[in-house]
Amino acid sequence: MDPSTPDDQKPLNPGDEGPADAPGVGEDLCPACLGAGSVGGVACALCGGTGKVLQGIGGG
Ligand SMILES: [Zn+2]
């Protein structure tokens, strides 16, 4: 009942520009691992191993 404690949110990855539910933000393939989630056998640091990043798609 306390909106100031969003403990349900997971931390953003370095490649994320904002939370998934934010307006103008959408999932996109990670440019570093191209959706693989890992680079050279190591978890991708940009997307955190998800293979996706959240990018602003609002443009302008
Ligand atoms: Zn990645």
Automatic annotation (TrEMBL):
Recorded superkingdom: Bacteria
Organism, as annotated: Paraburkholderia translucens
Official protein name in the record: Molecular chaperone DnaJ
Region (Disordered) residue spans: 1-26
Gene3D superfamilies with a match to the protein in the record: 6.20.20.10
Lineage of source species: Bacteria, Pseudomonadati, Pseudomonadota, Betaproteobacteria, Burkholderiales
